[in-house]
Amino acid sequence: WLYLRRQKQHRQRLRRLRELRALALGQGDFHLRDTTGKARSKADFLGSWVLLYFGFTHCPDVCPEELEKLGKAVELLERDGTLPAVRPLFVTVDPERDDAAALARYLRDFHPRLVGLTGSPEEVREAAAAFRVYVSAGPRDADGDYVVDHSVLTFLVDPDGLCRDCYGRSRTAEELARSVRGHMDSY
User: What domains sit in the chain, N to C, each tagged with a CATH number?
Assistant: First the structure.
């Protein structure tokens, strides 16, 4: 029974991977800058497992919740010394307000290894498009403030740079960590 169960899970993972590859999620490159101003591309993260989230620092509720969950999932994975390290990444969808300094201030509250990436509006748009992330800035209020509507997904990218899975809001940190562990085991 256990053998059949593992076989079924393995087939499901392979099917999910084929579906993600067919969507071409994350197969393009990106050219952004981290919070120290260092140029970063997808190639900088090859060889590492990456949990990637697109959001913005002025988000009132969803982004902080998702980053908190991402940080907790990384901590859960770090407790298992047999697993490779996971690199948490945050890419802003609001480069107008999210410069390197703003990202550094914002991200320090979530996980010590969380890397923030920003760039020109065109560079950020290209990075979001590579993962098919929807982004749309809303209307400005009287103070010039606005909210950015965007896809709420966390992407798991394997050491080869392929998107292995994506997780929506309904997944808990524990479920996310368990899924990442499963992908690492089957890699």
Answer: 25-185 (3.40.30.10)
- 51 vs 162: CA distance, rounded Å: 12
Looking at the DSSP bridge assignments, the partners of residue 54 are 91
Tell me the pTM: 0.85
CB 58 within 8 A of CB 147: yes
Distance (Å) of CA 106 to CA 29, 102, 114, 171:
25, 6, 11, 23
The secondary structure of 25-40, three-state, reads CCCCCCEEEECCCCEE
pLDDT in tens, 109-132: 999 999 999 999 999 999 999 888
Identify the band that residue 12 occupies on the pLDDT scale cut at 50, 70 and 90.
Answer: confident
Is 58 annotated to bind a ligand? Reply is no
Q: Which residues neighbour 161 within 8 Å (Cβ) at sequence distance 6 or greater?
A: 26, 27, 42, 43, 45, 46
